[in-house]
Amino acid sequence: MNLSLPPPDILLGGLVRGSIYGLVALGYTMVYGILGMINFAHGEIFMIGMFACIYALGFFSTYLGTGVATSLALSAFVAMIFSAGFGYANERIAYRKLRKAHILAPLTSAIGLSIILQNFVWLTVSKNNINFPRLYSEPLNQVAFTIAGAHCNYLQLLVLGTAVALMALLYFFILHTRLGIALRATAQDQLMAGLVGISVNKTIGLTFIVGSALAAIAGVMVSMYLGVAGYNFGYIWGLKAFTAAVLGGIGNIPGAVLGGFIIGMTEDVTCFYVDAQWRNCVTFIILMVVLILRPRGILGERVADKV
């Protein structure tokens, strides 16, 4: 075991990975905050964003001849639209008719939809991983600058900067806009929100749309960062993001972000000190210890008492 301090590059990699976990975790925590339910199909929405972006890149570069930056931006937008559409359909199919049913009904429905989406991509797109076009990722792998010995390339800077900016934007949206106030009111009491003129169904649908769009951007960044996309990525990354949401305090937006960074840093530091094969084990041990000491997560849970 290496007992020296982890290199700055390891810590930077943990922050980048953690920012993605946090971005995906926001979708879990938003849905739980407003419905008191876990959206287990959220990971597959994340995965769909990956494939939508890759195919959109092929279309824009082949048929429209757009530049690299323009194609990437347009493809990321297409991925957001696709994932938002699937997320809204998920709410209509798996949740809307089952809100007042036993808690196991929407849970089972969401798990079933997750399996359907994963197998649909497996059967119709590819059983193997698909490479992300290097034309769009390789130029970003050049070192942008060095801080305290950490070599940060443009891709890491893009991932970390985009994730943090979107998290901050969502936090501002929730706290300082009329739609954000409607979301918080619906999370507090759906009946009273409806009585004061808030469309509860539209507000809940908006929650799924926003969370799914954020997951799509995270999927695009993961496929760029790793260079591949696979049908099972939604399960792997979705489970880690859900763990981050629980660790930070599910239902709490800052908690989801904090949990994501903790999970990301834990994984990379474990890889350095022990071995990559131990990172999942160490992550879930930390989760269990935190939940034993603080059952509501690190930052608590703001909306669970109503459920």
Feature tags:
307 residues; mainly alpha; 73% helix; single chain; globular
How do you describe this structure in short?
The protein is built from twelve helices and four strands. It has 307 residues and is mainly α.
Helices and strands in order:
Blueprint: H1 8-35, H2 42-64, H3 68-95, H4 104-124, E1 130-131, H5 134-137, E2 143-147, E3 150-153, H6 154-176, H7 178-188, H8 190-195, H9 200-226, E4 228-229, H10 233-248, H11 253-273, H12 279-293
Antiparallel strand pairs: 1-4, 2-3
Polypeptide structure, described:
This protein has 307 residues and is mainly alpha-helical. The chain is built from 12 helices and 4 strands, in the order H-H-H-H-E-H-E-E-H-H-H-H-E-H-H-H. Helix 2 packs antiparallel against helix 3, helix 2 packs parallel to helix 4 (104-124) and helix 11 (253-273) crosses helix 12 (279-293). The N and C termini lie far apart (45 Å). The relative contact order is 0.21. Residues 302-307 have low confidence and may be disordered.
Q: Note the beta-strand portion.
A: under 5%
With strands numbered from the N-terminus, the spatial order across the biggest sheet is 1-4
The count of strands amounts to 4
Termini separation:
45 Å
Largest sheet data: 2 strands, antiparallel
Low-confidence stretches: 302-307
Average pLDDT reading:
87
Query: What helical percentage do the residues reach?
Result: over 70%
Q: Tell me, what's the shape? A: globular
Structural class: mainly alpha
CA radius of gyration: 19 Å
**What letter string, H or E per element, gives the SSE order?**
HHHHEHEEHHHHEHHH
- Total of helices: 12
